[in-house]
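It is time I had a proper look at our fold encoding. Can you supply me with one protein entry, sequence and fold together? It will help me judge whether the discrete encoding reads sensibly. Leave the record below and I will have a look:
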Amino acid sequence: MRVDAGLAKLLGLSRTAVAALTESGDVVLDGRPAGKSDRLVAGSMLEVTLPEPERPVEVVPIRVEGLVVLHEDADIIVVDKPVGVAVHPSPGWTGPTVVGGLAAAGHQIATSGAAERQGVVHRLDVGTTGVMVVAKSESAYSALKHAFKERTVDKVYHSVVQGHPDPIKGTIDAPIDRHPKHDYKFAVMQHGKPSVTHYEVIEAFRAASLVEIHLETGRTHQIRVHFSALHHPCVGDLTYGADPTLAKRLGVTRQWLHAHRLGFDHPGTGEWVEFTSPYPADLADALEKLRDEG
């Protein structure tokens, strides 16, 4: 295996990070600096000098326009996340965040988890809107993390995808890993993490279909990657092969993907609870244009 691929698997780093280590001479193979394309051979001595860990990204309390609290109690806070908002701070992201918006509005959340994502038990992409839950109590954090891990949470998304999936109801079971050439993307990869998406077409149009999606697993970009692999990318998702002409015609500037409903056992009462989020204006307008086209 090449040095970049092998180290990425051994250390859980991206290939870009490994390439930076090799370029700076921090990867030594059998006593000499290794190049990223050198081969790792059984029995060789591999030495890697890792850089100092990055300092935690600080949560900045800034009010977030359009961040709506759907429900709040002693254990949880359920929000409707607007487009263009990250769930928590990360290196390179300078825009608004859910945790920063909650802090600015005076909401206290759990202190469990890494400093920049305390209380966060699941995430939505910056360009994906919809319902999500954040833990307020420490017990809720543990219970919800366990529920997501055990797949007992009902995560329902709606997406408009290009064309007409065949069959109209099915399951996509295809492992996902980082894209071999582009670190910002993911792809269906033979040795990736197990990823399962259930879908059903609920409305068909001339150029696209509205599908309801139940996620069994929760990989990064899972829905976007799976439907792109089927050659039915989410409308507007140019990163994963969507048609820019169709996106422009519908006035969509991001993927048509919305976390519509979230159901789970309430960590405080044990009762099943469900929360829904209506389509935001940009997605609703695009849907109406599709209906008008027939």
Summary: Helices lie at 3-11, 15-23, 98-104, 138-149, 222-229, 244-250, 281-293.
